[in-house]
């Protein structure tokens, strides 16, 4: 009987050890913040986030992709806030390009724990996007066209591949061009009312081969705001061409 009892105790100790070890490992690998909301920019839509979505969801993150109407800053902020309302806890808010302006305003939402700017605009309170776009000469490859008679700005098809997605295949760039949203250019001139990066941790990814928002502009914005900078070799759509490296920055933000 004593032998059986001792065997039982030994077995119980092994089981307890395994449970404790598993719980400890899970505690170390589970992100502190598991919710991520992704906000696309102008001349694009949410489909570009697919590669990043796949990487993050496989690592246990709950990822939501906003489809911006691109009709105004206010409308895009509203769409982002609707996505944030649905999150069940603290959230990392990520914006690309024009989406950086959107998250600068929407980032004041109480569920936003940190901001990640991906080759993105980052105005301050009272500033608008076009102010920053005019602080350096555009790259020759840049193909943003003047607004049409409806106030909508598109990207020149002849320049889209080199100017927007130079490190993607022509086939992928053509798909992106075909799926771009109708961006109402007045959004570029709308000022931020309250810049969320002033009160929340911010991370900035500089795309070193960017031809749409030249790297010097990204450097200036992120340095001014004391944003933690990561440089990644890639085009304006670095989140598509280098999704694993972009994911690393988001994961870092989620563990702080």
UniProtKB/TrEMBL annotation:
Listed transmembrane segments: none
Domain AB hydrolase-1, residue spans: 36-249
Name of the protein described by the UniProt record: Pimeloyl-ACP methyl ester carboxylesterase
Native species: Flavobacterium defluvii
Gene3D superfamilies found in the cross-reference section: alpha/beta hydrolase
Signal peptide: 1-27
Keywords: Signal
